[in-house]
What we know:
The chain is mainly beta. The protein has 2 helices and 8 strands; from the N terminus they run βββαβββαββ. The protein has helices at 45-57, 120-128, and strands spanning 3-14, 17-23, 32-33, 65-74, 79-88, 101-107, 133-140, 144-152. It is globular and about 45 Å long. The model has no long low-confidence stretch (mean pLDDT 97).
Amino acid sequence: MCTSRLFTLVLVVQPPRVLLGMKKRGFGAGLWNGFGGKVQPGESIEEAARRELLEESGLTVDTLQKMGQITFEFVGNSELMEVHIFRADHFHGEPTESDEMRPQWFQLDEVPFNHMWADDIYWFPLLLQKKLFRGYFKFQGQDTIVEHTLKEVEEV
């Protein structure tokens, strides 16, 4: 039987650029990603997204747009990751390196997909076009997608 754990992911978008963070340690180390992590007991999903963004990048936001939800499964791991994905178009502060992440701006036509999770290239364009989505990705290890579904939806 599979259990599920809640996670958040925030992408800060300021066309023509997006802020990503180089993961310095832990799960996904060495990959560029948005900012996020586990939802802690007693906090809402959006509260967790705001907390993780602040902890990992030094930024605060007034508004988070919920853009998508993706369930991740890793072969051999019975715990599913339910990731709630947000977009922030306005922020306060300056991106600041943390113990966990090194923020860097990328032009939207230069997003380093070859140094990101393999699923990002599928859903990232939907987020940039402000389209809502739901998906499922099953990974073998951290590099290989063995199964996936992704669809645009009316609400998440």
